[in-house]
Amino acid sequence: MKQMIIILIFLINPFNCYPQLLDNALFRIYRAEFILGTVTHLRLDKNNLYSMTISEIDCSLCDHKELSDLIESKGTWIQNKDTILLRSETGKITRFEIINDSLLRPSYPIGYELDSRKDTMFTKIVKNIQLSHMQDFHLIYDTYPNGVARFIIDKYRLMRAEYEIEFRENGTLERLRYYWDNKQTKRIR
After folding, report:
1. Are 141 and 148 in contact (CB under 8 A)?
2. Is the separation of the CB atoms in 88 and 73 below 8 Å?
3. What pLDDT digit, counting tens, does each position of 92-103 carry?
4. Per-residue pLDDT reduced to its tens digit, 46-79
5. Nearest 5°: CA angle at 78, between 76 and 82?
6. What are the residue boundaries of the structural domains of the chain, listed by start?
7. 19-134 CATH pick, 2.40.128.300, 3.40.50.460, 1.10.1040.50, 3.10.20.600
């Protein structure tokens, strides 16, 4: 009888079946390696605020102010099942698909105005960007509910040396791993 009641509760209110992305974290930071020639960070806070910022610009001929206007934003976010919707302060909505806890994928390429361009060449460029997964956001920083860092990852950059640092809830070091060319090593090079 108890199991029937639990099943009925889940059937009546289906939103309880889907876990929130930040249930066990104060905030998380995700990084995309190549959005219009920039490395971009997305911070999702427990209080449903977000900020998307450029951390590095790899395009020397690009207008930095224009890149900032296209990519950087702040606002609120909400999770609905396996989708995250970001609503910026200007009212623009960006949609992300949750692949898993450590990978978010934008539904449309960030920084492109899809309504203004309808030609076939632009459409092919947008499809290639989506297929290449260059704008995927990988988890690089996670926290415990009290704000202490859970782990820090630097594995998705185009560098050969990478590391993972994992912490306990009291802030002491749990594990440290080094990688060189995607192979774990005993020391950093």
Report:
1. no
2. yes
3. 888 999 998 889
4. 999 999 999 888 878 888 888 888 889 999 999 9
5. 145
6. 19-134, 148-189
7. 2.40.128.300
